Amino acid sequence: MEPLHSLLLRQLKRHVGQPSAIPSEWQALVHAVDKAYRQFDEDRTMMERSLDLSSQELLHANSEMRVIFERLINSSVDGILAFDRDCRFTVWNPGMERITGIGKDEANGKNASDIFLSLQDTDEAQFLREALRGKTVVAKNRSYVARGTGHQGFFEGYYSPLFNEAGMIIGGLAVIRDVTEQKQWEERLKHSVNYDPLSDLPNRNLFTDRLTQALARAPWSKRRVGILFLDLNRFKVINDTLGHEVGDLLLKNVAARLVTCIRNGDTVAHFGGDKFAILLEDLAQADDIPKVLQKILAFFSESFLIEGHELFTTPSIGVSVYPNDGKDVESLLKNSNTALLRAKEQSSQYQFYLPTMNVKASQRLALESSLRHALERQEFLLHYQPKVAIKSGQFVGMEALVRWRHPEKGIVPPAEFIPLAEETALIIPIGEWVLRTACAQTKTWQAEGMVPILIAVNLSARQLQNQNLVEIVQRALIDTGLAPRYLELELTESVLMQNLEANSVSLDKLHAMGVEIAIDDFGTGYSSLAYLKRFPINSLKIDRSFVRDLTLDSDDQAIVKAIITLARSLKRKVVAEGVETEEQLEILRSLDCDEMQGYLFSKPLPAEDAGKLLKENMERQKRTPL
Prior knowledge:
5-stranded antiparallel beta sheet, alpha/beta, Alpha-Beta Plaits, 8-stranded mixed barrel, 3 domains, TIM Barrel, 50% helix, Beta-Lactamase
């Protein structure tokens, strides 16, 4: 009978001419064995020609070839086995021992069914039988449990028949590769592609895939599919104030609560940041959705205890439902997001999508597009509203207020475009333009002989958080030639408190330059007043809501009096906003308020008109003795 190593070698060589039939990694083994055999065969032929070797020497040469072949088989990191017509193993290399936990002595001569049954995988015996029928089988991602160690893993197998010189099948050959680490890596990669790393919830990619499948099933089941798009109110304040670590822990806790609000088969996904999406499948009717919404809102009524902080946050939720609000993934997601934006605009907990919302959304997109070009088209202008010293009636300052002159809509109210500019970060270049223009106008008034006054410019949250804010202010003052003491920056309490450490550094630098700082809308923000001591604040502006009913509501009078008393004790100026009547002015004068601003003296005016008013006030002050 032909030696086994010759059969194995011929079988391996048989596939060299068909490299596509076996995995590329295994071709290296085929070529290595073939090269070793050919080299040895050439050496032996040369020896036979040059020497009259005895049969004993030739036998020894064949023996050496078998040793080389066996070393190649035994050193392979892959498992290699051979079996006869009865599926009994005749070769079982160390690679097979490592993979299966079964030793060579135990495997040799055993029936394949017995061995693989012990591995709890009867298909392997079937693969061997297929090889004996002349078929080549490639099996991927086969699971196994190694005997003894209990190690669980995966392998790939290549099973092929063995032929003799007459071309008859006399057995089979298999190459087994342990792919456990590769499989684990693939699973980790798949998980990273489909799951959010922070919350470990499905991400947008997996959510979209599941929604696609749900929509494919819905027409057959005649059931509805609901999409809930959700984000957290005040999350940015928490994240900026307490740090990203606390913010991340809050998001994890929110994710855990949302999962408890849905049924098995539904999906909660994390789209990043504070945005989540919920897929409700197989709904009998849209009326089932409010039950889920109420459950979510109930969970958010309870506080979150994070790193010793008791935190409260509430969701805004937009809802779209298949098939009424869309029949494809893109439409449903877009409409749920549109409903979410409407919920936030109206400060409601949730909103179901309505077709009319798309009209408003389209208008908003058009407005955003126009806003992006407004600066380069020079469509912005400033109006100025004077601040007046209550005792003397002298103009002591002007507040610069930006206006947008739209080529088609006319003057767009600030309440309509400022939030949009803030959201899109366009407030940064717009704000710098406002600052420079206001400083330049103030310098012009001074050059015209006007009494120097403060020019007040509002700062938004994005501007205050801009790392280049101090440099932008400094450059504007230098370029326009305005002395820093004539510039006042106004910001609200909520803006001030969003990032305490960074804001403190920026405001200290601005104050050191000589720029004044004012708190706008005072009394409507944070209840804690510790920031009045922490930040370099020069003046407090009493919110117009307290001034409006000053003559009618004793509580408003008490609040205004308390603010003035507080400011006096801290050596801060007080400015009352929204003064419209003489009665309001008299009460403010009796409470010893410093300055006022409102329609009683002037509405916001274009620069030319504001200059005339400033000049008239200066002339009047000259004629009026102190």
